[in-house]
Amino acid sequence: MERTHGWTPPDELLQQIVPGIDSRATVEDVVGPPTASGVLNDGGFYYIETDMRRIGWRAPEITDRRVVAITFDETGVVSNIAEYGLEDGRIVPISRRVTQSTDSNIGFIRRLFGNIGGLSLPDIGQ
């Protein structure tokens, strides 16, 4: 079974964008809002489309990916339009950052809550 996730603007729309002239607003007017955008320094617009194939019970396999990256200068004017395919990508290992719990922490919490209600009035007066 083939599926497509996301969307990238066709070449006809990308040809309407002129670097050095168009702004963020005109890009959104021409091709629509981005799939993702850069978070640092009002980064670029990224349009991402992924084709996947699933055969039976196996995990989906990515068969194609197209990324259109539109970058802007500090004034918000288009500085570059680039297109990347699956062959341009690289696999990035994900680092799991899990805090290990220790028995000493659990023991402290058990002792803390275990002592609640363990006091009687004569104990408080002493």
TrEMBL record:
Keywords: Membrane, Signal
GO cellular-component term (any): outer membrane
Annotated InterPro entries: BamE-like (IPR037873), BamE_dom (IPR007450)
Occurrences of domain Outer membrane protein assembly factor BamE (ranges): 9-81
Keyword Signal: yes
Any Pfam family the entry gives: BamE
Record carries keyword Membrane: yes
Protein name per the record: Beta-barrel assembly machine subunit BamE
Provenance organism: Citreimonas salinaria
Lineage: Bacteria, Pseudomonadati, Pseudomonadota, Alphaproteobacteria, Rhodobacterales
